[in-house]
Amino acid sequence: MKDTIIIYSPDPEIGYGAFDQQDEPTEMDLSKIDNIEFDDIDYNDYPDFCDAFISSADYNGELMDEDQLELLNEDREFIHEKLFDQLF
User: Fold this and answer.
1) Residue 26 has what pLDDT?
2) Can you name the residues that pair with 7 across neighbouring β-strands?
3) Whole-angstrom Cα distance, residue 39 to residue 32?
4) What is the model's pLDDT at position 37?
């Protein structure tokens, strides 16, 4: 698994689907994410858990906001690994 993800600040006029290329990317150190809580875990969907998402988490001891969680939830590999760590 990768150690960081690159996050671009969203273009405030367009929203989170297009990114303002003038903004500098920010790296999020995945090792600093803990206290992860998941929602929409459907055990009938094992082993994919494609509907599961992170509903709450801390980054470096601080509660992540909705924008950070939305971007983090785009990293399906991270979600899948952390969900398996928590369940099994």
Assistant:
1) 67
2) 26
3) 21
4) 96
Helix (H/G/I), strand (E/B), else coil: 68: helix
Q: Which two tokens stand for residue 1?
A: 């698994």
Instruction: Specify the amino acid at residue 21.
Output: Q
State CA 68 to chain mean position distance: 7
Name the residue type at position 73: N
The whole-model pTM stands at 0.70
Domain-wise residue ranges, the chain:
4-87
- Supply the DSSP string of 12-58, one letter for each residue: TTTEEEEE-TTSPPEEEEGGGEEEEEEE---GGGTTT-TT-EEEEEE
In this model, does residue 84 exceed pLDDT 60? yes
